[in-house]
Amino acid sequence: MQFKKSILKTGFPMVAALLLLYPSMAYSTEIVDETSEEEEAVVITPVPEKHIIAEKFNQAEAEPFKILGSIIPPGQTRSLKWRSGQSIGSFVVPIPVVVVNGAKPGPVICLTAAIHGDELNGIEIVRQVIHDIDPEKLSGTVVGIPVVNIDGFWRKERYIGDRRDLNRFFPGQPHGSHASRIACSLFNKIVIHCDALVDLHTGSYYKENLPQLRADITIPQVSEMVNAFGSITALQSTGPTGSLRRAATSAGIPAVVMEIGGPLSLDPEIVDFGAKSIRTLLGSLGMLRKVNFWTTPQPVFYSSKWIRSDIGGILINDKELGQKVKKGDQLAEIRDPISNDSTPVPAPFDGVILGRAQNQFVSPGFAIFHLGIQSTPEKLKQEAKEKTVLKP
Ligand SMILES: [Zn+2]
Known about the structure:
Bound molecules: zinc ion
Shape: globular
CATH topology of the largest domain: Aminopeptidase
């Protein structure tokens, strides 16, 4: 599958529309950048009993779903408020959480987006998926948090107001840094009530990703979850320390990241793909009626490696996301605006473009292409076991 460069710069209207929901917002003041702190590494979250997705279908009947101080009866959809501790300026802003509690018993799936505030595709995917669900036809519960990092979202920034990456602080600490407290709140008030989690992201800072899952398929429940998505690219990775995915998986909640597109814009084509992928997941798990969107029902697995520029200059891409390349093919050229020299960037091996930097000025060492090497789950598991999986 190849996605053409069709990213529409529709981010700002989208942001403006969503912000109509929050008329009391004002700009917050950023604090000087700080490095990570030792205290954040301590895990204190109580781990719930092991979750088994299949067991939830065996209950006699659907039960009211209790979360965030509310009780949602079977067959109903509710919008709740998560008081995360985030504020915009001095105004405390609750985060909207949409809960669809199905009329029939089943597992609880959590969909999170915009943990990085500038990543918009996931917000729209959660909106499309969750508002399309008829609770009378749902088995189980879907919890959607379209904008986790409302502070960064408001400022069109990746990080929260204290310049920290929220996705490096899970499961968080109740008395830690601002980021750690938000992470702790999300994890304990919402995530531990779920049986599985899909966390939606995009490439960061002028980088864009082919729609893909990042998952630790050495964990059987995670591997089953990946297979339930149908035809999608899947990369083996354990996830960064402090990421929501890794913390959830460590707590017995199978979790995957869906990377999809680039930041600060909305791409309708890949948003549609992402929404269909999650609907496929819900159908495969038995939560919704199964709809076959794909001609090839299985994920395609990859290991991967980042290709870095060896010189500085202006990057001009020659290859699109999803495009197959052969060793020696020109991926891009780096142009020197002063000398007028042009340096080709060849593919170092056969692969598929899984991610790339958008055209921009780059420095030596800048990661410009994420090149995938097709693999098999068995091989990836073996490589993970041997700790030889290629990572950026
Ligand atoms: Zn992200």
